[in-house]
Write a structure and sequence with these properties.
By secondary structure, this protein is an alpha/beta fold. Helix content is about 30%, strand content about 25%. It contains ten helices and twelve strands. The chain has an eight-stranded mixed sheet, with helices on both faces. Strands 2-1-4-5 form a four-stranded antiparallel sheet. A hairpin with a 2-residue loop joins strand 11 (about 310-315) and strand 12. Helix 4 crosses helix 5 (about 160-170) and helix 5 runs parallel beside helix 6 (about 190-205). The structure holds iron/sulfur cluster (SF4) and magnesium ion. The site of iron/sulfur cluster has 14 residues, from loops.
Length: about 325
């Protein structure tokens, strides 16, 4: 399978400033040396608790934040080095994001026709307004709305419908990759299922690749082909979905999965609930060695000082933990 996106040693460190002269006193390592690939047509799930850096990573991939270091190859081109002018026809068009709250990004004074027309106009797609209107109506139907919605305004729609509008808008530029950040987290469970089914249908129809970011392990289990688990800006583990959910290797993944009863009962090896001690440490003063060592039930001496390498412990199954050295 062809690689669409390759992320190499990506870092996004934000300076922390203090005092009257706003001296830099440290860095939040929101994304810290992460590497992975995404294959064309697959869905890569990214899970982790809030504050683990998964949203920042999604935004850094499309340069809503300028990465501190590392590279992001999209179809072979390193997009971290491209000037904004060259970024637009490539990344601003071929990679789209869907957010948790589509309403926040939909201008309430604009009809759906206007909202969906804007990006097409900016990118100079389709010959004229009539063609663009046809495309908009077609897309509204594709996402399960009526084509007459083109004349309506965002506030006239329910939460689930608004997410459909957000999805339609992400499709107007014929993207190849869609990064969905907690795209169904604000919705009722029954609506979540509808939106996930829609995303799966669209993936088939338009040959889309997804990065699906969510704190919800059950939702990710449903939609993803492979899953990466983040903790404190690091990728702790990455594997095929079935391997990860049935046989998690990293103690953090084991604990996360053990906290979800529906997953525990579905044949995961470790059936006991693992309760982690302590809170997630501050991202400013990260623990030395393995960033998880302050909470890890399996901690060894070496974990306090030596950061574990992110390595392939089994075919296609990557983990950052000294237990697998
Ligand atoms: Fe736990 Fe050590 Fe593995 Fe970190 S490296 S997850 S502290 S066993
Ligand atoms: Mg799929």
């Amino acid at each position: 399978q062809e690689t669409l996106l390759e992320v190499r040693n990506l870092k996004m460190h934000f300076p922390v400033k203090a005092g009257i002269i706003q001296r830099t006193v440290g860095h939040v390592k929101a994304v810290d040396d992460i590497s992975f690939t995404v294959k064309k047509g697959e869905t890569l799930g990214i899970v982790g608790e809030s504050g683990c850096g998964k949203s920042t990573m999604g935004r850094t991939l499309i340069r809503l934040y300028e990465p501190t270091d590392g590279s992001v190859l999209f179809g072979g081109t390193d997009i971290t080095k491209l000037p904004e002018k060259e970024l637009r026809p490539l990344i601003r068009r071929k990679i789209q994001m869907i957010f948790q709250d589509p309403y926040a990004s939909l201008n309430p004074r604009k009809s759906l026709g206007n909202l969906l027309n804007e990006p097409m106009k900016v990118h100079g797609l389709y010959g004229n307004q009539k063609e663009r209107d046809e495309k908009i109506k077609e897309l509204l139907e594709v996402v399960g709305l009526h084509s007459s919605a083109i004349n309506h305004y965002p506030h006239e729609f329910s939460g689930g419908q608004r997410q459909r509008i957000g999805i339609a808008r992400s499709l107007v530029l014929n993207p190849e990759l869609i990064i969905a950040d907690e795209a169904v987290s604000a919705l009722d469970v029954s609506i979540q299922a509808q939106i996930i089914n829609l995303l799966e249908d669209l993936q088939e129809e338009f040959n889309l690749t997804y990065i699906f970011i969510s704190h919800d392990l059950s939702v990710v289990r449903h939609i993803a082909d492979r899953v990466g688990v983040m903790y404190l800006g690091k990728m702790a583990e990455l594997a095929d979905k079935d391997d990860l959910y049935k046989e998690p290797l990293h103690p953090y993944t084991q604990a996360l999965l053990s906290a979800v009863p529906a997953i525990r009962s579905k044949g995961a090896k470790n059936r006991e609930r693992i309760v982690l001690k302590g809170d997630i440490p501050s991202a400013v003063n990260q623990p030395s060695g393995c960033v998880f060592h302050t909470r890890c039930p399996m901690k060894m001496k070496v974990c306090e000082t030596v950061p574990p390498q992110f390595q392939e412990a089994r075919p296609g199954h990557f983990v950052a933990c000294h237990l697998y050295d």
